Structure formats: structure tokens, C-alpha cells
């Protein structure tokens, strides 16, 4: 089968590799759509925790061997620790993601644990399915924030995570919902999901601010835009280290939280939110178009709302 293999930093090569066989407890999935977002372009440039060679792609939907249309929840844990039993697998000491620590969806077929399969509603398009995994992260961050309908909300970044948070806030009935991004196409998508203000930067102060980018600049913007006593939630990974003024955090009694991945319940909830996405927000890509797209992201071109590899198209 064909697969895109990350062999070294910025070397993503189309290879003919042996198709996986389903081991006991696993299912083969014919990949229809593999979403491409922040994890992919950051991992492409800096493989980090990925063992190379790595078939990337952790946002996967396709057709299982029994014919069901499914999304794949790529998060795996040991299954027996207290965190796993509480559906908080990200707190398991041995969590891993299909498509990061093991081979994923940048291939025609992927083998995944049976319990990773989440059946898709019949009316959810493959393009909408490309939003399920990032939106599951958004559901988790939204719940961690504790935000309610009366809170003023700001979201930095309008890619998959930011649009998912926009959808969560709109669904909760938040009237003040500001979204910033440098891409006009992404901002239009945020408008369509219910943002009350969109722009290149945040203006004003908010009760809850989400940073889905994670650069030094956006983290600083998030902290400054958080009202005294407010809550700042970080999801973005663009930079590891950021210098921040903790004295200001103390004096203004701001809360800072991290939010990472999702529970099985939150992953299922993301199916409903993905229904709000427009099919034309997704750019469908063939194998040879993926590396140029990732290079474009690294050069700062985020004009695509969401991109997805279609390995069997
Ligand atoms: Zn565990």
C-alpha cells in the first residue's frame, strides 16, 4: 500500500510499504480522510517524540473491515491505571497517540485497536469527519475552562482547535465571542460558527481566553487579554518555552490551565460539533500535495481552514 513516511525532519516521502494485518483485538480501517493540523506540521519540522520512520496522521476517519464508517480515537493508555479507568487517558503514564508514537493515517490502511473505533453518523461527510479529532481537544479545553453563557470568551487561532472552541462557546450561548487569526478564510469560518468579533488580534479583556497557537506572542496576548480573576487556557504547542510575567498573574489572580487531548466521552461529543462545519472548509489532498502544504504552514501560510489527505481517493 501507499504511505507517507516521515524519515527525517522535513523529509516526508511517499513509499510502498506492506499493508498492516489486523492482530487480535485490532481492526483494519481503509483511510478515507486523515486531517492535517498543528501536530503534523510541528512534527514534520521537529519529529521529537516520533520514532522514525513514522507514518504520520492521528486524525483519522475511514471504513472499517465490517463496513462501518468510523472515526479513530487515536489516544491509547495502559487501560488499567486509575487515570485510564477514569477516562483521563492523557494522565496515564504511558499514553500514546496512533500516528505519533506508532504508524497512523497517512496511508491507505491503518490497523487500530477495536476500542478506538467510533461510529460516524450517516449524515456526517468525510470532510466534516476531518474536524472530529481537533474538536475533541476543544471540548476538553472548554470543559476545563468552566466557562458559561455569561462569560466573555476569546479564542486565539482559528484552525481546528480554535474553530472547535468557537463552536463550543456559541453552543453555550456566549454573546461575547472574539476570535483572532491572521487568515481571512479561517476568520470567516469562525464568523460562520458564531463569533461576535473576528480580527487579526484581540481587543479588550475577556473572562476566559484560549490560546490554540502556543507561540511566545500568542501566549503573551492571551495573558494580557485575560481579565483580572479570569482564566487562561493553553492548548497550542508552537513553542515549548515562553517567558511570562508571573507577578502579574499573581496580582491579577489569573488562573492558567493546560488542556491536552480528550476523553472517550468528549471524542463522541465532537461528532455533533463537526456537523456544523462546511465541507468546503477542507482542502482534500493527494499524497504528493502533503509535504508542500506542510512547508507552506512552516512559512506562515495558513490560508487553508483545514487540510486532509485522501489516501484512497
Ligand atoms: Zn493508564
Helix content: 25-40%
Q: Determine the N-to-C terminus distance.
A: 13 Å
Strand fraction? 25-35%
From the spread of the alpha carbons, the general shape counts as: globular
Question: How would a crystallographer describe the biggest sheet?
Answer: 7 strands, mixed
Q: Which topology of the largest domain does CATH recognise?
A: Quinone Oxidoreductase, Chain A, domain 1
Any idea what the CATH architecture of the largest domain is? Alpha-Beta Complex
Assigned CATH class of the largest domain: Alpha Beta
Annotated CATH homologous superfamily of the largest domain: Medium-chain alcohol dehydrogenases, catalytic domain
Q: Look at the structure and give the mean pLDDT.
A: 97
Write a short abstract of this structure.
With 313 residues, the chain is an alpha/beta fold.
Provide structural commentary:
This protein is α/β, with parallel strands linked by helices. The protein has 2 domains: 2-131 and 277-309, Alpha-Beta Complex (Quinone Oxidoreductase, Chain A, domain 1), CATH 3.90.180; 136-258, Rossmann fold (3-Layer(aba) Sandwich). The protein has 10 helices and 18 strands. It has helices at residues 38-45, 82-85, 126-129, 132-145, 160-172, 184-193, 216-225, 246-251, 264-274, 290-298; strands spanning 2-8, 11-16, 26-36, 54-55, 59-64, 69-72, 75-76, 96-97, 109-113, 117-119, 153-156, 177-180, 197-199, 206-211, 226-234, 255-258, 282-285, 306-309. Strands 3, 5, 6, 9, 10, 17 and 18 form a 7-stranded mixed β-sheet that branches. The protein is globular, with a radius of gyration of 19 Å. The model has no long low-confidence stretch (mean pLDDT 97). The structure holds zinc ion. Residues 77-78, 81, 83-84, 92 line the site of zinc ion. Zinc ion binds next to α2.
Amino acid at each position: 500500500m501507499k504511505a507517507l513516511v516521515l524519515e527525517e525532519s522535513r523529509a516526508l516521502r511517499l513509499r510502498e510499504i506492506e499493508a498492516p494485518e489486523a492482530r487480535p483485538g485490532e481492526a483494519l480501517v481503509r483511510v478515507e480522510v486523515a486531517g492535517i493540523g498543528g501536530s503534523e506540521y510541528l512534527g514534520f519540522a521537529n519529529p521529537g517524540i516520533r520514532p522514525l520512520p513514522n507514518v504520520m496522521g492521528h486524525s483519522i476517519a475511514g471504513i472499517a473491515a465490517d463496513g462501518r464508517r468510523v472515526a479513530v480515537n487515536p489516544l491509547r493508555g495502559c487501560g488499567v491505571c486509575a487515570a485510564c479507568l477514569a477516562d483521563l487517558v492523557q494522565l496515564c503514564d504511558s499514553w500514546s497517540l496512533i500516528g505519533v508514537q506508532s504508524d497512523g493515517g497517512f496511508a491507505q490502511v491503518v490497523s487500530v485497536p477495536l476500542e478506538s473505533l467510533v461510529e460516524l453518523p450517516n449524515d456526517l461527510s468525510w470532510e466534516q469527519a476531518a474536524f472530529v479529532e481537533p474538536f475533541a481537544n476543544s471540548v476538553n479545553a472548554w470543559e476545563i475552562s468552566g466557562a458559561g453563557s455569561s462569560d466573555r470568551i476569546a479564542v486565539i487561532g482559528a484552525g481546528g482547535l480554535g474553530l472547535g472552541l468557537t463552536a463550543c462557546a456559541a453552543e453555550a450561548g456566549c454573546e461575547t465571542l472574539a476570535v483572532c487569526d491572521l487568515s481571512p478564510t479561517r476568520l470567516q469560518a469562525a464568523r460562520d460558527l458564531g463569533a461576535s468579533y473576528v480580527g487579526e488580534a484581540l481587543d479588550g479583556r475577556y473572562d476566559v481566553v484560549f490560546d490554540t497557537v502556543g507561540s511566545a506572542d500568542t501566549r503573551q496576548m492571551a495573558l494580557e487579554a485575560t481579565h483580572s480573576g479570569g482564566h487562561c487556557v493553553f492548548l497550542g504547542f508552537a513553542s515549548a518555552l515562553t517567558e511570562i510575567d508571573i507577578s502579574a498573574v499573581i496580582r491579577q489572580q489569573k488562573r492558567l490551565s493546560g488542556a491536552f487531548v480528550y476523553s472517550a466521552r468528549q471524542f463522541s461529543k465532537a461528532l455533533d460539533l463537526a456537523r456544523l462545519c462546511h465541507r468546503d472548509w477542507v482542502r482534500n489532498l493527494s499524497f504528493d500535495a502533503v509535504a508542500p502544504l506542510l512547508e507552506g504552514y512552516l512559512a506562515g501560510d495558513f490560508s487553508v481552514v483545514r487540510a486532509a489527505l485522501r489516501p484512497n481517493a
